[in-house]
Amino acid sequence: MKPLALVLLSLLFCLSQAGVNKHRPRSAAARGQNETTNPCKAVPLDFVFVIDSSRSIRPNDYEKVKTFIVNLIQFLEIGPDATRVGLLQYGSVVQPEFSLNTFTSKAEVEQAVRNMRHLATGTMTGLAIKYAMETSFTEEDGARAAHLHIPRIAVIVTDGRPQDTVEQVAAQARQAGIQIFAIGVGRVDMNTLKTIGSEPHSEHVHLVANFSQIETLISVFHSKLCGGSETCELVDHQCQHTCVSSPASYRCKCREGFILNPDGKTNHLYSCVCRCRAGFTLRPDGRTCQSESDRPPHHGGRVLYQMGGRRQSVPT
């Protein structure tokens, strides 16, 4: 009986250990192994957060915004040759926290976000967009040169009506090639968000009821920025005809019969004048020729002929 009892005890011990291991958190190495099996396919970005830090945002909601930012950058590869991240917050004034060339690792960006302090002042959204356009997305502040076609992304998070005008400056920013995502929280006017965000608005303008729900947008951005989207889907390419994606870049292409203008985006109709060899005339299509002997009888013109040593012109 003793051997049987020992076997049963050993079996019970093994089962209990299996149950413990089943519920034990995975090690960092194990988690990393699984995470690397589904790597992010996002192209390099110049990515700037523009965060409303007005007094209407309560301290605990401000912390939720910071958590949202930290969670959003988790699926991005951050580095000098990958995605660069900058951030500014605004109230009555604009306070840049860090530029696109300040940090070179995800850990540094996370720490800087966690160290942010609430401004608790006004809501000068237009001023913040202007700063992002004129300063944050310049080469001096770390943005890559325009000819490299690195998508420039601005994510604006706000909870209130701007105290300044936004329509014109937002349009200028979009025209400058900045793709704007506008996130409204709470009682934000949807029309105001639409004047800020890029088109199509269904992809760039989002409104959530409260700051607890802002986390639901993580999956939206993951799908948009990290779901293998082509560059043409991420950047406001402004190609007049067709945008053609390439790794980390794009180019504009014309339809048949057009050629690209020097700006690399717009097109003009390719035109030429066709001429025929001697003895042939141009058909009405402007492209093909016909023998003069095949021309139909001509009426209503004039014909030149020789008579008595002189050239005469008479109506036909």
From TrEMBL:
<feature type="signal peptide">
    <location>
        <begin position="1"/>
        <end position="18"/>
    </location>
</feature>
<dbReference type="Pfam" id="PF14670">
    <property type="entry name" value="FXa_inhibition"/>
</dbReference>
<keyword id="KW-0677">Repeat</keyword>
<dbReference type="InterPro" id="IPR036465">
    <property type="entry name" value="vWFA_dom_sf"/>
</dbReference>
<feature type="domain" description="VWFA">
    <location>
        <begin position="46"/>
        <end position="225"/>
    </location>
</feature>
<feature type="region of interest" description="Disordered">
    <location>
        <begin position="287"/>
        <end position="316"/>
    </location>
</feature>
<dbReference type="GO" id="GO:0005576">
    <property type="term" value="C:extracellular region"/>
</dbReference>
<protein>
    <submittedName>
        <fullName>Matrilin 2</fullName>
    </submittedName>
</protein>
<dbReference type="Pfam" id="PF00092">
    <property type="entry name" value="VWA"/>
</dbReference>
<keyword id="KW-0732">Signal</keyword>
<keyword id="KW-0325">Glycoprotein</keyword>
<dbReference type="InterPro" id="IPR050525">
    <property type="entry name" value="ECM_Assembly_Org"/>
</dbReference>
<dbReference type="InterPro" id="IPR002035">
    <property type="entry name" value="VWF_A"/>
</dbReference>
<keyword id="KW-0964">Secreted</keyword>
<dbReference type="InterPro" id="IPR000742">
    <property type="entry name" value="EGF"/>
</dbReference>
